[in-house]
Structure formats: C-alpha cells, structure tokens
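User: structure tokens for this one?
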Amino acid sequence: MFEDVKEISDPEKEKNEYHFFYNREERLKNAPKIVKDYYEGKMKPLRGFQALYKNKANLFILLALVFFVGVAWIYTGFNKFRNYAKIDEIDCNLSAFSYADEVYVNAGFNRNIKSKRTDAADIKIRFIAVNADMQVCEEREDFVTYQGGEKILRTKFSDFDVVRIDALVSVNGIEKELSTAVKR
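Assistant:
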C-alpha cells in the first residue's frame, strides 16, 4: 500500500526552512522583544485596579460601567417610588398589607416640611384593588379635608387575591396616581 511513497526528503530544503535552537541563550537571542523583556523581568503584570484603566479597551469598559451605574443612580434618585407623591405641597404615601384574608390599605398625608402654606386642602382618593390577573376587582372612594398635621385614610378589601393597590389622589383639583404592591 505504501510502497510507492518516497521517504526521502531534500536535505537542502530542510536546512533552509527548519531551524530550531536547542540552546536557551540562542533561543532568547532570536526571540521577539516582548519575550526578552519577560525573561529579563522588565515586564510586570498589571494588578488590582490598574488592570481596569491602563489598557485602552479596559478603560472604555470601565467608563461605560461608570456611566451606566451613574445613570441608574440618578434615575432612581429623581424618580421616587410609585407609592409616594408630592401634590400641592402635601406628601402622599400609600401602603398595603395582607392579613387573614383581608387587605388593609393606608394612605398617609403630611404637609411638606419646606411648605409655608397653612390653608386647608380638600383631598379625594379612589382606591382600586387589582387582582393577580391584572383586573380591577373592587373600588372605594374617600374624602377628607386636610388642615395640617398627619392624616391617614384607611380602608380594607376582603379579597385575598389582591396583589396591587392603585390610588387616584386629588388635592385641590390636582390629581396623581399612586400604586403599591400588597405585602404578604
């Protein structure tokens, strides 16, 4: 089968193409500069935080990471939670929790600390219970005249499938929507 294969190689061709140095000093003399620097100890690896900014590609990744973290931090700082709103210098806070197949809802109203107003305010609130299928299952309305201090409006829903409470709060005609998840 392999009788017709010639196993003779050209000694002139081998001499020119293949060259391997068995001597370490000869290998290092013909090696590239980066290899010589590594063997001489001139090349120190980047450690710690330097590895993030000394290389140009890593610097771009670091700057992008800082940018996105900053945007997320600013976004969360300027956008308050959905269960809080400031309406006509009155702070409104909505909370809900579940206990024994009942959902208890609290809406707290407090005059803003920076506010200089002392006049009365008409507060209308409409509580909307939303079940697990994102369908409105029950609604309640309440009204109070706020004259200062802390006012809390409470209501309860008998459906234990309620997962979220939405509230439409109107203070002197200015309306905002609040929403909170029911804590179990």
